[in-house]
């Protein structure tokens, strides 16, 4: 890149210092206003990205927030819109067999491994407008800017809008990136059904995106880069502008059932009860205490409880609950799970209850590439941004690519740490900061290497 490698990405007046300080949070946006003269290339890229985000938010089921479920009409409209934007931006656009959408900035050295960047466009029910969509909009804006400013790269850079990551409609996650990385093949689609009984295969049959082309080969990937909102409160609380992800936590999920004895609430003495809810409550509190004593980055959550018979004058005879445990290192994750389950068993035995625990998910931690982390750190410093290294407690498409190619993630702050909710928010200047760092990294990976 001519001159100062990163100077182009930070025109004067574009950012408001201290925008992560909660007391000064404001939607200042880029300094350019209509009638103020032509925008710089970086300002135009930021405005284009903001426009994509606003338009994508319109593709939603009625109701609060954004609801865009896999293979729904809203999802189809959003992916088709992105294909149109890709074509208008001078990129090569196509979709693969499961509906992942790609925008390719073709490189001069076509035989070399490609750089892939993006995220997903599906949402949770009544979610926000930035989770996933930000990484997609930023990827397209970055490639559009690079093409207009520097022409064809040496190495092909491809933006991707993954079909699905959340698992909101069908009982599986990472359907889009899992198709690319080999986690899934099409055979899973026949038996996987949504709450209405529609199979994934049936829903996918209605996916009429085009043109079609085979998915990229993971053996042909030079790197995968994902820009995302933090979905947590660390960056905002610290007043740090950007987060460079060092690892994505491994995750264990369990389904637990505690069985006691349902009986009359008025006639059963306290010392003669086998109260399933009391046992589950003690397990929940002990889990919290154990996790707090272990410390970061471990987190443990009881997220859902079902009490039976759930009647005011009956001692609960059965409680079903979910258990979610996460840590960035596999040995510590395994050790904590074993400790917690031993404690649960002791509580159940002492209270005269039966306990059954079934594993439901085992995702290994994913380490991000050290070299790419260093590159991101250098770019942040060059652009004058404060940053910190951090572990992602949430799962992301990047964790599927990490074992297969160098992978990197960059976080921007989430206001109040809120995500998966209509209130999900990140100020424009924070979104722009992440975009500019992404542009600089993609330039290095695609034009310089």
Automatic annotation (TrEMBL):
Pfam families attached to this UniProt entry: M20_dimer (PF07687), Peptidase_M20 (PF01546)
The UniProt record lists the keyword Zinc: yes
Cofactor(s) named in the record: Zn(2+)
Family matches, as PANTHER family: ALLANTOATE AMIDOHYDROLASE, ALLANTOATE DEIMINASE-RELATED
Protein name: M20 family metallo-hydrolase
Cofactor: how bound: Binds 2 Zn(2+) ions per subunit.
Keywords: Hydrolase, Metal-binding, Zinc
Binding site for Zn(2+) 2: 131, 166, 420
Keyword Hydrolase listed: yes
A GO term, aspect molecular function: hydrolase activity, acting on carbon-nitrogen (but not peptide) bonds, in linear amidines
């Amino acid at each position: 890149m001519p001159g100062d490698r990163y100077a182009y990405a930070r025109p004067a007046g574009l950012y408001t210092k201290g925008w992560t300080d909660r007391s000064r949070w404001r939607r200042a946006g880029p300094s350019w206003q209509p009638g103020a003269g032509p925008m710089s290339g970086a300002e135009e890229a930021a405005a284009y990205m903001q426009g994509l985000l606003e338009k994508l938010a319109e593709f939603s089921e009625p109701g609060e927030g954004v609801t865009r479920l896999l293979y729904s009409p809203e999802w189809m409209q959003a992916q088709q819109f992105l294909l149109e934007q890709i074509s208008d931006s001078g990129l090569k656009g196509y979709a693969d067999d499961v509906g992942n959408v790609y925008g390719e900035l073709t490189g001069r050295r076509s035989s070399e491994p490609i750089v892939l960047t993006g995220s997903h466009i599906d949402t949770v029910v009544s979610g926000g407008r930035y989770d996933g969509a930000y990484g997609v909009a930023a990827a397209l804006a970055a490639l559009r800017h690079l093409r207009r400013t520097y022409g064809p790269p040496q190495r092909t850079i491809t933006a991707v809008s993954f079909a699905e990551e959340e698992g909101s409609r069908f009982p599986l996650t990472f359907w889009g990136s899992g198709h690319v990385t080999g986690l899934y093949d099409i055979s899973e689609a026949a038996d996987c059904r949504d709450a209405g009984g529609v199979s994934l295969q049936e829903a996918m049959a209605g996916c009429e995106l085009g043109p079609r082309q085979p998915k990229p080969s993971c053996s042909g990937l030079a790197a995968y880069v994902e820009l995302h909102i933090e979905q947590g409160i660390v960056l905002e609380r610290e007043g740090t502008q950007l987060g460079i992800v060092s690892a994505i936590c491994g995750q264990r999920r369990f389904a637990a059932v505690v069985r006691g004895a349902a009986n009359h609430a008025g006639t059963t003495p306290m010392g003669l009860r086998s109260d399933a809810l009391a046992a589950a409550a003690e397990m929940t509190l002990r889990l919290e205490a154990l996790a707090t004593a272990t410390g970061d980055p471990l987190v443990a959550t009881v997220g859902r409880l079902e009490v039976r018979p759930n009647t005011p004058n009956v001692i609960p005879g059965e409680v079903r609950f979910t258990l979610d445990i996460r840590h960035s290192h596999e040995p510590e994750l395994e050790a904590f799970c074993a400790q917690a389950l031993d404690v649960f068993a002791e509580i159940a035995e002492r209270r005269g209850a039966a306990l059954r625990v079934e594993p439901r998910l085992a995702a290994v931690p994913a380490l991000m590439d050290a070299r790419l982390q260093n590159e991101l750190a250098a770019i942040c410093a060059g652009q004058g941004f404060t940053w910190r290294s951090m572990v992602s407690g949430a799962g992301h498409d990047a964790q599927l690519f990490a074992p297969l190619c160098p992978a990197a993630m960059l976080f921007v702050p989430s206001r109040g740490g809120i995500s998966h909710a209509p209130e999900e928010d990140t100020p424009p200047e924070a979104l722009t900061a992440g975009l500019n760092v992404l542009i600089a990294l993609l330039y290095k990976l695609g034009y310089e290497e």
